[in-house]
Specification:
Layout: E1 3-4, E2 7-8, E3 13-18, E4 22-27, E5 32-36, H1 41-45, H2 48-52, E6 55-57, E7 62-65, E8 70-73, H3 74-78, E9 90-96, E10 99-104, H4 108-121
Antiparallel strand pairs: 1-2, 3-4, 4-5, 6-7, 7-8, 9-10
Length: about 130
Amino acid sequence: MGEHAGKPMAPLATNIYFDADMMHVVLADGRQISVPLEWLPRLRDATKDQRGRWRLVGGGIGIHWEDLDEDISVSELLAARRSTPAEGTWYRWVIVPGVELHIRSDLVKRYRHLIDVLRRASGETDV
C-alpha cells in the first residue's frame, strides 16, 4: 500500500479476470488477489457474459456489476471476507429448468422450506 500526503492509500484494482473457479483481481501495486467464486455467490451463479460486464468504481477501490447488483471492495477481498447478499436485495434460485424463483434476501430463511419442497418435487436431489 502506498502513501499520499502521509496517509495510507487504499489498494486499487486495475483489472479483473475469471477462470472456472476463481476471480482474479490485479492491483495497481503489482499484487494479484485470487478469490474462489464459491465465496461470491452472485458471481458464481452468473453467466460468463454477466461476469464480464464489470466496471471499476472509486478509481479502483471497488468493482461493480450493474446486471448483478453486486459491488465488491478491494479491501474486503484483501481481508478475505465472503460476499453476502444485502438485506432487501433479490436472490434467485432456479427451481426447474426455465423456472426461476426470486426472493428478497431478508426473506430467504422464511421461504427456504418452500424452495426445498419445490426442488424435491422437480426431482432435484441436491436439496
